[in-house]
């Protein structure tokens, strides 16, 4: 049960001063709270024996008031210190998770659903916050506070009466332990179901246009309803066990009260204890109810926290597929990029993504990469980004193997515009500044001109301050592509990779962007993958891929003379454009 605290020892070790203060303050408050019942018992005895004077009564009331003020003040301090510490733990774990997500390669996200990762970063972290806050409170109250109460009852009133009243405790400990094991298993299942539900909601929100287009609203609603019912059922199973804690403790506490009252009355009758001591004993027995409840809450919170921490640690324990070397080689600029007999196969795939690929790219060159869908164009770019492990052969920059270079450094050289443009739920300005944090409006307008986006700016309601919505939902496909191109332009990278980045723009716009691209990128390396061959006709070198192999290469003029796939495809596209024009 307490293994979750052992697993979190790194955090408690880091903030030991905070938790030590909170626990000590909590113990002091517990000790202070034990004094008033004793004062009440003493006052009752003095009233019974007619020895209570007004002066003594005033002293007792003043002492009582002072204890209340001290208890309130110290309670505030431990409460603030303990629960703010729990929030620090949640913040720390959330930061660790986010940093971990940012280091992960696509393989990780293929194996883990987004909804489940969100559940671990929200619900599971909340459970850990409960463990680091309320869990520590119940731990202290169910152990130290309970021991203090029992000690005062035994040493100051009667050991016999105390032992008799505590006979139900071993039964409670056994039952609570059984409940805890069941809670852990069922809570894990409930959290997994919630993760699946999260993932389904995300997919529905992202694909809402497709759902409407195919009139699948009712089917999607029914699927959501079914998953909601599953989450509900699993949480009900947790609640069923959770609901057993309080009644079980209430019954056992009732037995304690019965024993205490019956046996205590007998001891008073035989003058073993006084009436005031019996009253004090019953007040202490009432105070013992919360520590007994705390035992149940402790087991509940610890088991939930343990289950959640296991899920979070499972995510954090996933090692990145691609790492920087311990002692990376240093390069100032990438002057040459060389692929030498490169083979690559995606994890779990049967066919190779790249096969025996050899090509040399010099700084300042523009290289076009074309081929059928699935030919390996994006796969080629991903080798430079080092998104996947398993590259065979040699990929060198300035004659140095890319695996010997710092990962962050190599990626800082690259500006990448993927096939699926990712825009953030921010303004147009902020999306472009993602490429250069301190970019001025003047610089932004310049790259927007290069991306042929200035005309579109006129129809945006707030210009650069227009919110693009989630994933750029308020922009058209072509507009999103041009904002993404502008973001890459403003970065002014050593290597610019456009992965079919102009597929959604018309021929005229593409021609303008290419014209600006040639001027802007003079002296720097540019790689362009495209299905529309007009995007690469200006390239210094063009690679034609098929099933990951280079089947043709050369300039546009050279490839047209070879009368292979490139020439056939180019003529076909030109003919199509002429027919559209007519």
From TrEMBL:
Q: What is its main location?
A: membrane
- What is the name of this protein? ABC transporter ATP-binding protein/permease
- Nucleotidyltransferase as UniProt keyword: no
Q: Known SUPFAM superfamilies for this protein?
A: ABC transporter transmembrane region (SSF90123), P-loop containing nucleoside triphosphate hydrolases (SSF52540)
**Pfam annotation, one family:** ABC_membrane
Q: Which residues cross the membrane?
A: 21-41, 61-88, 127-151, 157-176, 249-269, 281-301
Domain (ABC transporter) ranges: 337-572
SMART domains per the record?
AAA
Q: Which InterPro entries match?
A: AAA+_ATPase, ABC1_TM_dom, ABC1_TM_sf, ABC_transporter-like_ATP-bd, ABC_transporter-like_CS, P-loop_NTPase, Type_1_exporter
Q: Where in the cell is it found?
A: Cell membrane
Q: Which domain of life is it from?
A: Bacteria
Q: How does it sit in the membrane?
A: Multi-pass membrane protein
| Molecular function as annotated in GO | ATP binding
Q: Which parts of the sequence belong to the ABC transmembrane type-1 domain?
A: 21-304
Q: Which UniProt keywords apply?
A: ATP-binding, Membrane, Nucleotide-binding, Transmembrane, Transmembrane helix
Which Gene3D superfamilies does the UniProt entry name for this protein? ABC transporter type 1, transmembrane domain (1.20.1560.10), P-loop containing nucleotide triphosphate hydrolases (3.40.50.300)
């Amino acid at each position: 049960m307490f293994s979750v605290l052992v697993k979190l020892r790194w955090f408690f070790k880091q903030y030991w001063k905070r938790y030590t203060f909170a626990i000590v303050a909590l113990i002091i408050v517990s000790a202070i709270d034990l004094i008033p019942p004793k004062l009440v018992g003493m006052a009752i005895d003095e009233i019974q024996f007619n020895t209570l004077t007004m002066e003594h009564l005033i002293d007792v009331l003043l002492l009582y008031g002072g204890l209340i003020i001290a208890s309130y003040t110290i309670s505030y301090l431990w409460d603030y210190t303990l629960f703010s510490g729990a929030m620090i733990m949640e913040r720390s774990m959330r930061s660790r998770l986010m940093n971990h997500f940012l280091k992960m390669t696509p393989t990780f996200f293929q194996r883990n659903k987004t909804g489940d990762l969100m559940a671990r970063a929200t619900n599971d972290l909340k459970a850990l916050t409960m463990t680091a806050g309320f869990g520590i409170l119940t731990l202290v109250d169910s152990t130290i506070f309970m021991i203090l109460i029992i000690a005062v009852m035994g040493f100051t009133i009667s050991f016999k009466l105390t032992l008799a009243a505590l006979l139900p405790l071993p039964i409670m400990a056994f039952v609570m332990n059984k409940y805890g094991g069941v809670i852990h298993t069922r809570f894990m299942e409930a959290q997994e179901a919630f993760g699946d539900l999260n993932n389904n909601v995300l997919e529905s929100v992202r694909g809402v246009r497709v759902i409407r287009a195919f009139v699948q609203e009712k089917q999607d609603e029914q699927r959501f309803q079914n998953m909601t019912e599953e989450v509900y059922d699993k949480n009900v199973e947790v609640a069923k066990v959770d609901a057993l804690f309080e009644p079980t403790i209430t019954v056992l506490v009732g037995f304690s009260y019965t024993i205490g009252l019956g046996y205590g009355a007998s001891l008073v009758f035989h003058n073993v204890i006084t009436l005031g001591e019996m009253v004090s004993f019953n007040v202490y027995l009432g105070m013992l109810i919360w520590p007994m409840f705390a035992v149940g809450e402790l087991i509940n919170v610890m088991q939930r926290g343990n289950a959640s921490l296991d899920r979070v640690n499972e995510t954090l324990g996933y090692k990145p597929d691609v790492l920087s070397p311990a002692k990376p080689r240093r390069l100032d600029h990438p002057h040459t990029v060389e692929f030498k007999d490169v083979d690559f196969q995606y994890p779990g795939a049967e066919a190779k993504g790249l096969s025996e690929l050899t090509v040399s790219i010099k700084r300042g060159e523009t290289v076009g990469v074309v081929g059928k869908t699935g030919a390996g164009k994006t796969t080629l770019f991903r080798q430079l980004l080092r998104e996947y492990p398993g590259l065979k052969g040699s990929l060198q920059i300035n004659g140095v193997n890319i695996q010997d270079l710092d990962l962050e450094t190599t990626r800082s050289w690259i500006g990448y515009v993927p096939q699926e443009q990712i825009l953030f739920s921010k303004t147009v300005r902020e999306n472009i500044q993602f490429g250069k944090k301190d970019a001025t409006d003047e610089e932004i307008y310049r790259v927007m001109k290069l991306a042929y986006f200035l005309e579109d700016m006129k129809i945006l309601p707030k210009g650069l301050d227009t919110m693009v919505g989630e994933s750029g939902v308020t922009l058209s496909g072509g507009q999103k592509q041009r904002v993404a191109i502008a973001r890459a332009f403003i970065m002014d990278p050593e290597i610019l990779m456009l992965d079919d980045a102009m597929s959604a723009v018309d021929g005229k716009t593409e021609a303008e962007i290419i014209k600006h691209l040639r001027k802007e990128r003079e002296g720097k390396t540019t790689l362009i993958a495209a299905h529309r061959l007009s995007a690469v006709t200006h390239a210094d070198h063009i690679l034609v891929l098929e099933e990951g192999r280079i089947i043709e290469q050369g300039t546009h003029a050279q490839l047209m003379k070879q009368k292979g796939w490139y020439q056939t495809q180019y003529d076909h596209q030109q003919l199509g454009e002429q027919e559209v024009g007519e």
